[in-house]
């Protein structure tokens, strides 16, 4: 018995030693750790760090398929599509039966707009891994991009079989059903998801608009904001209770209460602020909701008189009073804005309005959904059949065709309006604008038309600005300055005139005259992103980077989809040597607009400063894709390729 115990102990000792011996050989290497870390950084969206980690993998493992796949994923997320494709293709060479690189290739080609190539690569992925949800989604997206809607739907439904609650599948199906104009399927898919993504919400709003359901579009637009709105209202109410003097909180409070449908509370809150003019539009909405139409009319008239919200106020007045003159005034507004509350309120007019009013309504709806310009033209043409000289019908048709890109048709109707109404300034002004859109421009004729518009209506700020801008482009600064000054005197809303005049003053070493113009614009319309972008441009010229960044941040806060502000932030960070911040800002710009030439060129400079020459070249190659003949692209590639060659 003792002999068996000794033998068993010896055997155990041998097994343990063998296990230790094997583990020594199978111990994860430094490269394995770095590969795992790189993957984790990609998964946590820390793409720059992932690039650095994956570059530092020892040469023996650097060329492995996993490393190439993770590098490809990082490049894809950094919008360096050609570099991503190269990495994915290398991974496929080494391991053709892996589905992830094929999915990466498909995603890259989708971003580049090469949908057929994306379909081919995604099909490979689905053949290799038939239960890959990502592969079927990629195939569906590529088919949808090609407008092969039936195959796109089949691919999405296959992905749903594998993962029923995948939100990307729902988004894809909504886009397919929207394009197929399958209302029942679209609504069923929308009802299936209690928390649709923001793109899905936006698509649903477009769906309801396209079907003339303006009120439902408005309801859907604010439905998913309600939780945040209620929280914001409560915070503002508590703050005002503690500090009643904080009147700066009232405008946002009133606006949020109106969105929530709490009209009586909105009226009460606005009254506590002694009726500042900035609240008149929101007060008009609150009175309208409570049935106090006379009070609503007075509030909207005040809002229109301040000009900032003239378009919305006049449309509301047209709906309440039925007076067509308010529609005419609406289209003399200088500032175009969207207000889904106002749009929702005019839905009831669609069933009883005359063709001319329907033309006005659809012209207004075209601001939200351009397809409505077709209906605007159709209704205005009906009105023109009854009254061939109707000015509003002619201009509505001209506007609609211009927005639809039918420039010869637009020119024909606006020219007819000019001949019938030779004393009105709008037709020559509009013809000049059309002249700027055609390929064969006639500068002399454009200037003559603009001068005619100004002579006919010498106090129209828009006409004054347009002529001033034209002279500015021609280098006639003195004439431009005079016209900009007249435009600003005519209207406080001519922000571009203020900006251009401020630039003229700044370039002529008169900054003390420039800044007050920009500050005036910000006081006049504090919710307009353009005024902050203009101020930021001024501070850039003064090399006041802190103020410039603050104003660009404010512009992005108002409009998160403003790619230009993000690009300019990246430019400032680059100027300051903050390359990490520059890359972040420029990557954000490319998420908004993947065809931003300036973003890619600046991104290349940032990578070059960081010593990432390969990525710098990749960014320039993306810029080359957008603007192939640009001389700065050729110069950058020559310089960077030389640096890369020298480093080897």
Instruction: Tell the overall outline.
Output: globular
Which bin fits the share of residues in helices?
over 70%
Q: Return residue spans where pLDDT drops below 50 for at least 5 consecutive residues.
A: 1-8, 10-26
Give me the number of helical elements. Answer: 39
- How much of the sequence is in beta strands? under 5%
Structural class call reads mainly alpha
How many β-strand stretches? Answer: 0
Major pleated sheet:
none
Please compute the radius of gyration using only Cα atoms: 31 Å
Could you provide a short overview of the structure?
Helix content is 77%, strand content 0%.
Topology overview:
Layout: H1 2-26, H2 30-43, H3 47-55, H4 59-62, H5 65-77, H6 81-94, H7 99-112, H8 115-128, H9 133-145, H10 149-162, H11 167-180, H12 183-192, H13 198-210, H14 214-223, H15 226-242, H16 250-259, H17 263-272, H18 280-289, H19 293-305, H20 310-321, H21 324-330, H22 340-345, H23 355-365, H24 372-386, H25 391-403, H26 407-420, H27 426-437, H28 443-456, H29 461-473, H30 477-490, H31 495-507, H32 511-524, H33 529-541, H34 545-558, H35 563-576, H36 579-592, H37 597-610, H38 613-626, H39 631-647
